[in-house]
Amino acid sequence: MDAILNTAKSWLTDFFDPEVKQEIQDLIANDTEELKDRFYKNMEFGTGGMRGIMGVGTNRINKYTLGKSTQGLSNYLKKVYEGEDIKVVIAFDCRNNSDTLARTVAEVLSANGINVYLFSSLRTTPELSFAVRHLGCHAGIVLTASHNPPEYNGYKVYWTDGGQIVPPQDGEIISEINALAYEDINFNANDSLIQLIDKEVDEAFFEASVKNGNFNAPGKDEFKIVFTSLHGTSITAIPEVLKRAGYKNVTIIEEQAEPNGNFPTVKSPNPEESEALSMAIKKAEEIGADMVVGTDPDSDRLGIAVRNLDGEMEIVNGNQAMILMTKFLLEQQKNKGFKGNEFVATTIVSTPMMEAMAKAYGVEFKTALTGFKWIGKMIKDFPQSHFIGGGEESFGYMVGDFVRDKDAVTSTLLACEIASQAKANGSSFYKDLIQCYVDYGFYKEKLISITKKGMSGAEEIKQMLKDFKENPVSSVAGSKVKWIEDYNTSIAKNVLTGEEKSIDIPKSNVLIYETEDGTRIAARPSGTEPKVKFYISTNAKLVQAANFKRVSATLDDKINTILGELNLG
Known about the structure:
Helix 6 (125-134) crosses helix 8, helix 8 (199-213) packs across helix 9 and helix 11 (318-336) crosses helix 15 (429-440). 38% of the residues lie in helices and 22% in strands. It is an alpha/beta fold. It has 17 helices and 24 strands. It starts with a helix and ends with a helix. Strands 17, 18, 19, 20, 21, 22, 23 and 24 form an 8-stranded antiparallel β-sheet that branches. A 7-stranded mixed β-sheet has the order 1-2-6-5-3-4-7, sandwiched between helices. It has a 5-stranded mixed β-sheet with strand order 9-8-10-11-12, with helices on both faces. The model has no long low-confidence stretch (mean pLDDT 95). It is an enzyme of class 5 (isomerase).
């Protein structure tokens, strides 16, 4: 506790604002537990950058923690691009304080002699990724906490390729940040280096999104869409992109169209949570819509609901949407003709069905750690290869490589193209998905997230993962465990034969069990939230579409058995 108290007292110097010092003094006098949580560690970069609760302290998002990160980034950019006229573009989402924090970040960069393009109002994360290359910038920053609760904010850094920072840049930038004291931050803005941007970049992004996501699907005049931005930034892009692609029957949920960092109409602005789409689904039922689309606050994730075999609106999960989007893009490429250098990509905790489908098309399949920055890195690392598309189970997808991060804008358009074409052909999005199960195997997944907040929660998560590794299960739902993949040691071991293989992916705190029947269980801590996540994947043959409901129920039973065996039910 002495170390935490000393860290807190270091914020009582004249460098810090009077109200900050007053708040810390109040915490020291009245709330030891809250003081601990705010100062027991420094905010760090995770899989999606730096993200946390807003407030005063080293373990909070505020002008000083973001200022220090920006000062470190400035120092790094000046070392790497010595003598160049350095440019950085900044965007921000709808969250409380995002606009003022974005301005602070811009001021620190400008104080260090760096040119800044700052969006004049909120913009989507995919547009920021696009803008980095469009404007010829050396880096980009977006102020967002993605789908986290209202009290969060964050900061994602992008490199010259438009992708999030990856090794070695991330480690080198972190070293620069860690070498600084807060007093090293230069807050003395040079306003002449800050240029506001908006419509010119918007126009270029919309044009690129339509070019990559529009396949001139038939039936658009009859296709009905309900769209909700969940109080986020996608309202600035998706309605316009759909309109330009020819969709006229788009109903916007007006109660959720106004950007609002408090997200007043939802428990969580996360399209992974079914409750987030409830208002839109209700409207879809009222007007007989074909599809519902909802996006998270910075518009990199999308949730989709479509009509199932019984004609009811059903949410499809991230794995299912990814499968159908990738299938559609592969089919488009097949019609053009494969050149032999194409690849699709996903992450190690996403559905194995992606690999089965890639094999069926004879296309290379690449897999990466969780986090879209790793998929972006693939595109950079293999410039001779052609990236068709890829995604991850957490409702993110990327169409082509003009954006180098999850892109809910273009993915929304692609999903509508698939569904509109299917309906015109006498099928549906849902029926086409079932046909994929017939063609490539019926894979069904389940995600369990367990939240453990604060300093004690971090220790609990650490212990849970340690127990999962040190007490390995020998069978899952009656099938023997065959492989244990330990991404901390980069070793995959066949526990039945003793064979070992090296894992050619950066080390990460992930453990995966795979059984003889292909069932997979993965465990990892979240990189952006105080959660531990367990991913379960099961599979079965689906001989014909008519058997779908029966086989689906069998897989549900198997998943429930696994949850019981792991005490996760």
